[in-house]
Structure formats: structure tokens, C-alpha cells
Amino acid sequence: MKRLSGKWHVVYYLALFMYLLDAVWGQIRYSIPEELEHGAFVGNIAEDLGLDLDKLSARRFRIVSGTKKQYVEVNLENGVLFVNERIDREELCEQSLPCSFHLQVVIENPLELYRVEMEILDVNDNSPNFPWTEFNLDISESSAPGSRFPLESAVDLDVGSNSLRTYLLSVNEHFFLDIQTRSDGSKFAELVLQNPLDREQQSAHQMVLTAVDGGAPERSGTVQIDITVLDANDNAPVFDQSFYRVRLAENAPKGTVVIKLNASDFDEGSNADISYSFSGHAPIKVRQLFSVDSETGEIKVKGVIDYEKTRMHEIYVQAKDKGPSAVAVHCKVLVSVLDKNDNLPEVILTSVSTPVQEDAPPGTVIAVISVMDKDSGENGNVDCEIPHHVPFQLHSSFKNYYTLVTCDFLDREAVAEYNITLTARDMGSPPLFTRKTILVQVSDVNDNTPNFKQPSYTVYLTENNAPGASICALTALDPDSGQNAYLSYSVLEGDIHGMPVSTYVSVNSDNGNIYALRSFDHEQLKNFQITVQAQDAGFPPLSSNVTVNIFILDQNDNAPVIVSHVPQNGTAPSETVPRSVDAGYLVTKISAEDADAGQNSRLFYEMLQATDPSLFSIALYTGEIRTIRQLVEKDPTRHRLVILVKDNGQPPLSATVSIILSVVDSLPDSPPDLGDLSLSPHHSTNFTLYLIVSLGAVSFTFLVAIIVLVAVRRLKGRPSNKESKFPSISCCCCCSRSEISTTTEVFKKSNLNVRMSTGASEVNSNGALPQVYCYKMCLTPESSKSDFMFLKPCSPVMSVQQNNAKSTDYLTSGWSALDHNELSNKRAATPNELKYSNKDWTWTNNQRNSAYKYSSANMEGTLSRQPKFDSDGFSCSVAPQYWTWGNHMN
């Protein structure tokens, strides 16, 4: 009792588990007749499953069929399940009962699976049918009443109540029918002799056999039976057994002997020779699969034995001798087919949701898969698997049903599609397997912003471009696809010098080409910056920005402009040249400006025409006009020079100016007019006043300093040098009208630097000179401007020897310096001494104009020590060191 009770507990829990499983997964059943038209109502599956109609589409409600055809479908608007394709029960299930197939309902968000069983009911759409229209039967007149003669069977494809129900025989006085049932439920008829036959009275009999089914209305089929009465034969053959049972492996090769039948006859001669054949009511399928050797009685395989189609065959064989009036005897052979693992598993993709969005959460159903194996037992058990390296998993829902779901997030940009190999393997020995590839495409989601190839762009555009000229092309890439990767370009709003950026440039929204909307001028706008945005067409749209720096390159579109010696009222400017000047005399300096930049603003000076080309030359880089030789009496007193100023552009642009030079015997003795010098048209200075005040203040300061220094030295009791007019000096500067004054102003070393400005000399402290120098500025009576001259460097000494005062002066019309070491080597007896200028030397009117031209060209001179000649300026070499006036554009 305890063991029995335990078994009942197991049964109870098993039933409870099945109930819960049914509740979790859900299962419903529908029964419909075959041959329904398309659209026929099956049931309201949404209502039967308790689903919300409004959410069927959102939850991707779909029907997955386990068959190759989609027999039914669902209307998502009302939840009605309807017939999608004609169903033929005989085609679907043949003679099997019950006839059904299964559907799987898949609902997502959350995932729910329901199993639907569709039972197909038979309708009486087939009549019983005999294989032949006539059936011949030979019966010996000696046959005793009760003898049985099997008849041909009729075939009805319908099943159940619509199948073959009975046979009817036309009225006669010798025979009646006995209806028999086979093991599979089918019926066949045997003709039973009721009254003895008399060949002499009636040698032949004709009857009609009718097969009737059980449908409503019933259907029937007929066959005519022709019976021939044979003369008596003493003995009939006898089988060893009336019933035989054998086993046969499926797929047995053709010619395989199933069984050898044996029948014996006690007659002799031809009456003892036995012939074997199928009985008249042997099914047609049996005749197609097997053959009977008429001589040996061997039953052999003729066709393909398939366990999955028919697991058991009934073979009816008759034997009769070859004598006259032979009587046939019958036996039954039951052949059981043994299953063999000869069927590969079948994989049916009943539903594939592809493409799947890349942002689909893990657990999203991708496909519903059904597998089947026609084999039985372990040979029919199937297991499925997929590779482990893909972000998908197989879940088993029902028997032989699997769902393919995502197990991780997908990224279309990394993998756009997956070829998943599904392997279905049975449990047979050896196992058979089937592989099927499932293509899963990943649809794009707008999850990537456009990316420019560079973090920023720098482009160069030559000025004077044509409006509409292409500046550059920007390219951005979006890893997404479709509309999510379609990019449009735009320029973000901004201002450039107070004007909207949209008035400067535009961008092609399709290809990112940037175009200029105006002609740019380097002199007005040298560079500007814009921001370009690339935006995709996704929803919501994503965008990214990039900065474009646009530099306007200079073009040689500005000719040089001569800022000095500008003609006044159509009259060429004039300069005077003393006849007594030597070669190298600075007559004047041509100053010019060029609004361009770089090499386009680098200027060169040439002399196109001259009254006497052998007398004057112009410096290529500085524009200084100097005498080539000393003037003589026969030289003309009036010279016309045409000066060409050209830039270094390609092609070069130029300007010309004419200058009239007048040769005079001497310059007028007039006080210097320092007020006419100016730095530029924008700067005007009363140079005379500044010069007098500056020199007076400096002279007074240094005189006081010298007096104090002399007094201190006298107090210390140091002897003074009577030959010296002045104490030890660091620098000196003097002003004179007609000749150099012997009285010099003594300056202390104060790291002085000299700058020419507005026709005046300005002394600025710079701290750039490495040693002390003497500067002497002399104003001649003939000069109307300021003249400036630099002399050799000085070193502190106690006195200056009188006998060296007449030594040769180191004089230059520019700036000069003499190395202290060289001076010491040449004059060992006098460490340093002050050199006075040649009293015949004066700063000419041209030299005064030179200072003006330097300033008007915005040139700034910087004292520097250089070991070589500078192409941008000029230098005067007095010793191993040089003082250079460098030209630099402000």
C-alpha cells in the first residue's frame, strides 16, 4: 500500500507540474473541418488567451506554424484566427488519426509563448474505390459449402465514420459475403460458398460487389466479380501455416527475401505443381513493395520499405496447383518493419524576426524554430545547438520547439548581420544531424554622431578670389546607415568684423563644399574662423561641429607707393648737391611703401634714367642715392633722375618718381631749420626747439658732472694733466655752425642708443651697447636741417694728448665705430683720444632729407653689432666691428 501510495503521489505531482506548465506557457485547442475556404473563422485567439487587442501590434503578436504551409493566420485588429490556406486532411495526415498540427503564438514585451493545437476533422470528400473494374475468380465445382474466397479490397481515403464501412454483394443463390477487419481497422470481404456448384448446370456466375462508406451522405464504389466454375480436382494445396509473422528492417535492399512460403499438394504430376501469387484482396501498396515468386513462394522486397510511412504490412498470398480445376488456398503474412536511424532531423524556421534593431534588449525573440525527426525512439529525439561566440541563445519552449533570443546588446556598426549555424542532431547511433544557417540582420539605430576627419581645418585662400569660388571640402562620416547616415552641412551663425558669417561663406548642405560669397582682400581681412555643423537625418538627429580657420593669402595687387619726393603741383621734387662732395656722398633717399605683405612688399630701387649715369647710383634695397665720383666743372649743374621702385611679387608691380638734382658751389650759410623735419604726415615736431632744449639740458648736466669730478680729483691731490683741455671723458657731443668747436660737451657713459626721429636726434637709454662711444653732432651754417655724425669709441683715460689732436679723423657719413683693442694696438702711447671731425665736413640738404625719408617710410633703426653686411641696410666698416642701420617694417 505504501508503494502504491508513493506512486500516486508521483502521478499527482506530475499532473500538477503539467498543469502549471500549461498555465505558464498556455495551450488552447481548435477543431476545424478540412476543405474550408480562405478567411473561414477558426476562433478569437486574442479573447481565448485573454490578451489586450490594443497591444497586439505593439507586442508583435504573431503565429508560428509547425508545418511548411501557413494554414492559419490572425487578424491583429480583432484577434480572430482565420484559415489562410486550404487544408486537405488526406494530404496532411493520410490515414492517421487524429490529424492535427501545432501552432506557436509568440508575444513580446514581455515574452509570452502559447501553444495552439489545430485538429483537422475529416469530411466525406472521397468515395471507396476498387483497383480494378472487374475481378476474376476460379472456383472448383467440388468446393464444399463454407469455402472462402478473398476478394479485392476497396480503398477510401477518408477516415473515421467517413471511411469504408461495409461491402454489399448482389443477390445470388450460391454465395454470400463475410466482412473482416484488419489490424489497422480497415475492412475487407471474403466470398463464402453457400450452396454447391454444378459446372454442368452453370459454368459461370457474375455478381457485383459494392463498397459503402459511413459518411452522410454515404459514398460507394463497385466492382464486377466474374466466377468461373472449374472441373473437380481431388486435392487442393495446403500451406504449412495459415498465418505468418516476420520482421523486416526498413530500407532493406531490393531483392531481400522476406519469407519463403511452402504449400503442399498430395496429387501427382501437374496437379502437384503449385503456383504462388497475391490474393485478390492484397492491397495495392503491398503489391508495390513486395513480390511473390510463383515457383518458390519467396516473398521479396520490391520497393522502398519505410518505417515512417508504414510500420506493418499485411500480405495475402494464394497457392494453387497447375492441374485442371485448380482450387486456390490462402495465407496471411504479417510483416513488422523495424525502425532504422535513416532520417535526418528537419529544421523548420517557422518565424524569423529580421532585421532586429541594434538596441533590442537581451531576451528579444529573433526566431521560432521547430524540428522533427521521422524516426522513432532515440532515433527521433533531436537536440539543437548554436555556436557560443554569437550574442544569441536557444531556448526550448515545447517539445521540438525552440526560440532564438538575444543574450546581449547588439551593435550594427560592429556586426551588421549574423550567419548563425543551427545544428540539429538526433540521438541515434550513429547520430544524424542537419545544419541550417539563420541570417539575422541588425537594423540601424541613430546612436552615432557624425565625425569629421580632422578635429579642425586650416585652409588658405588667395585674395581677390571670385565670388562663389570653392574654398575647401569638408567630409564627415557617420557609422550609422540609411537615413541615420545621411548628413547635411551648415555654417553656424556668427559675426566677422560685425557682419554675419553667412555673408562671407556658404556651405553645400549635401557634400560639405565651402564657397566664398565675396572677394576677399588680404589688406582688410587676413583671417577669420567659421564653425561648420554636420547633422544626420536620424530621429532624433545627431550632430557635431568643426572649426575651420581660413587664412587670406596675400596677392601682389598693390603697387609700391613713393612716400618721399612726392611731386607738388605737378613739379618734380628737387635736391641740391654741393660740387665739392666726394664719391659716396649721400644725396637723398627714396622712401616707398607697399600695402602687400611678405615678398610682395619687399621693395627694390633702380635708376631708370639719369642725365649722367656715371655720376649717381641708387642702393638696390635702401633707395639711397649717392655720388659715384667727385663732381667736376664740366658736369651739368642740373640732373634729372627717374627712379623705379618695384616689389618682389609675381608679376612685380612698380612705381616711378623723377627727381631734379641741382649742383651748387656751396650751401647757404643759414641757421639750421629743425622745425621742418617730421616723422610722417601724421607727426610734426618743432625740432629746433627740442634740439636746443635737449642739448642745453644735457650739456648743463654733464658740465656739472665734470666740474664735480674735477673737484673731487683735485681734493684727492691727484695731479692734473695740463696738456689736457678736458678731463677723462666717456662720450662727447658738440654743435657747431661753421666749423667744429674746440669746446666739447663731455658726457658720461650711460648706455646710450640713438634713434632718428622727426629730423632730430633723440638719445634713449637702451643698455645694449657693450662699450662707451663718442658721438659728435655738428650743424653747419649751410644746413637747414639737423646733421648727425658718430665717431670712434672712447675709453676712459686721464687726459688727451695735445699732439694727437691733429691726428687723422675716423670719419664716416653714416655711423661708425672703432674697436678699442685695434686703437690701442695702433696708438700704444695714447690709450684713447678724442677725434674731431674734418672742419670741411657738413651734412648736406640731401642727408637731412635722408633722415626724413627713413622716418616717413616708418623705418626704425636699431644699433646692433653684426659681423657682415646686411642686405636690408648699409654699414660702414671702420674696424673689425660694424655699426648697422637695420630697416624693418613697423
What portion of residues belong to β-strands? Answer: 35-45%
Q: Specify the number of helices.
A: 7
Instruction: Give the total of domains.
Output: 7
Main sheet summary: 4 strands, mixed
Rg calc: 64 Å
How much is the average pLDDT?
A: 76
Q: Which regions contain 5 or more consecutive residues with pLDDT less than 50?
A: 1-25, 670-685, 718-890
Number of strands: 62
Oligomer designation: single chain
Structural class, by secondary structure, is mainly beta
* Proportion of residues in helical segments: under 10%
Strand order of the largest sheet: 1-7-6-3
Gap from first CA to last CA: 120 Å
Instruction: Write down the overall geometry.
Output: rod-shaped
Characterization of this structure:
The protein is mainly beta and 890 residues long. A hairpin with a 6-residue loop joins strand 41 and strand 42. The longest helix is centred in the last third of the chain and has 29 residues, at 687-715. The chain is rod-shaped. The model is unreliable at 1-25, 670-685 and 718-890 (pLDDT under 50). Keywords: Calcium, Cell adhesion, Cell membrane, Glycoprotein, Membrane, Repeat, Signal, Transmembrane, Transmembrane helix. Residues 31-130, 131-239, 240-347, 348-452, 453-562, 576-674 form the Cadherin domain. It is a single-pass type I membrane protein.
